[in-house]
Amino acid sequence: GLFGHPCTVASSRDIRGTQPEQSMGHASLIRLDADLVTSAGARCLDGSGGGFYWRAASSAQNGTKLVVFLQGGGECRSATECAVWDGGAGRGSAGWPKTKRLGEDELSDDSSVNPHFHDWNKLFVPYCSADMHSGTRLTPSHALGGGYFAGHNLINATLAQLRRSLPALAPSLVLLSGSSAGGIGVLLHADYFAAAWPAATVKAAPAAGFFYPAVSSERDFINGDATPARRLGLAAEWAPYVSPRCAALYPGEASKCTDAAFAWRALATPLFVRENQYDTAKLANCGCDASAALTANDTSYLRQWGRWVRGTLRDLGSDLGSEATPHGYFAPSCLSHAANLGWSAAPLIRGVSMLDSLAAWFFETGGAPARLADDCGELPCGGGGGGSCPHLPQDPLSRACVGRLAELCHGLRGRGDACDACLESHVHDLEAHGCPSRGRPLLRWYCGGGGAGGHHVCDVRIGTNDVALLPPPSEALPRIPTVTIAPGVEMPLINLGGVHSHPSNYSAWLQLGGRGLDTAMMYGDDVQVQVGDAVAASGLPREELFLTSKVPCCPAESFTSWCVWYDKEYKDLDAYTRSEIDARLLGVGRVDLLLLHWPCATMEETVATYRSLERFALDGKASAIGISNFNASAIDALFAAGLTVPPAVNQVGFSIGGHSESRLGRDLDTLRKCREKGIAFSAYSPLGGLSGVDVLHHPRVLKVAAAHNRSAAQVALRWVTQQGVVAVSASSNPAHLASDLGSFSFNLTGAEMKALAEI
Hints:
Helix content: 25-40%
Radius of gyration: 29 Å
Structural class: alpha/beta
Shape: elongated
Strand content: 5-15%
Number of strands: 24
Largest sheet: 8 strands, parallel
Low-confidence stretches: 1-24, 213-233, 319-324, 382-396, 436-442, 448-477
Distance between the termini: 61 Å
Number of helices: 27
């Protein structure tokens, strides 16, 4: 199913896999009373009245505990599609059996499959409306072939019928779940169910229903398909339910309430998202068929998709860095839809099963992380589009073995040769955990060599972050020097940057020993998320890393016309709020250095914006603040306003051959002014990209490089850093990154420094 984005529907059938039936309980059909069908419009697509299946708990102690499950099954958006739609429970209720075996994981009464909820009351809501359980129509839609779209009406009538049929029911604890289209129904109705049982604790855990990370409709907009009317899910025909809280959060933008990436922000109900990072149904609906060979453009789109998903999930769990957020998630890096999101079918993430993670979240018992997302690279860890991402072995010995593998080879699952090498190096440890009794297939399972269909074309090993692409250093890299920029704040003398059009290989940088990362809101959300992903995947202590970001304030000069879109996007947000958004995208509660990207159009606006950065630092959300692209006169004007927190750094373009342009501080006068004011000087484009000089091929640079047996790039960087100027380089090539980090292994002579300065 695809709610809120109008790409072509790949299939109208629910593609959730089925699990083996084990001791499944039978539930009884309760049909809706006739008056509810007519007055509440509680009809299936064909106009027949709806109903639900109910199975009571067998023990009195669980009589007030309830699992609600909304069935999935795709949707229809045209008369042609609706004429043949037969997803979920079908287009009508006439053939529904009087009893139904409840086989879904959370509905099973088998304690070995469903240890936490097996003996709870079970409410199963069949899906027969083809509208993601969302529609509120009371009359048929002629535009869509005469069908009723009344999914919300059916839920509303189900609650009313429950009160009639089971007047003594007074839930105290409710798990609200659903898959695919049912998962979307859960997101739309979580607060609705909570309001129906105000005395109960209601928590929502949809599977494959968190449809679309923010911004991921880029391809739709490029194709010209995402018009407001269509984005609303054919609003005139489905008339989807929108919660009052969401409508209030997005006044005049109700379409956002049909997009999970926005709608969750309005939820008061705790949410646990079970979602594949690369959901094949969603990708297919946006023109990326993961079951076929992908083009280079598709693979690029897949990379962006993963970044958007991980960023949205991190946003979901961050609550601006607070651990108090009620939300959780379990997100395998798999090419699949819903088949691998069941109780026992889900893969491990860092040695933790989905069920253990969900239980820790639901019952607030701890013992397992409640927010888990695979961190195995920019492309899926697991195999084919049919859902062959590795499943969790069921027997205790295999569970223990795989858990140990995850501890020993953290971050290498699915990485083929690199993973195999790690396993071989720990063979004795693995033997102690009984792994050989399971044979090589289990090891191949973890490393990605097994599974139906073998490796998919999108296997993570084609990603640039693969450890196998990192060149072995020819010599031990020296410790990266630092410079003190504020009391107790040490900044690495070299940092890795990168912009939207040319992001760097941040993961490789950290693996090679780099510790400083430089980014900015203007570089794009996807770059911010990519930086945050690299930090999270590195496993490095936060205190070992140095994160610099920048909040823009657009100047008047025409060269910054690319800043216009940013001001339009965030026009109602002050710099403090923009800074909070930036930290959230990075997945951190605090940045080490926050810069004002440019002077604003007026000095009055510049000072006001800088005051917001001061407040951000005083609130403990930035260890230091600073400026960028300020020349000597702009620095004097800023200090003349009287500052509570002086700038710690001024970052400008600066290099061999590029230190004489004063407008944006790219000159020696600005360097001297910074030293006079106690401001550290930082150089972007340190290899001469803004200088107008071909620094890396200049005869004088090459002569010095030959004298030291170093590259021209290393000489250019050393000329900058040997002056105590912080360098911000950029590259996606691991060999170049290693070279940059090796630029501290030699020193230039005084004569060489002078000769290079004269270029």
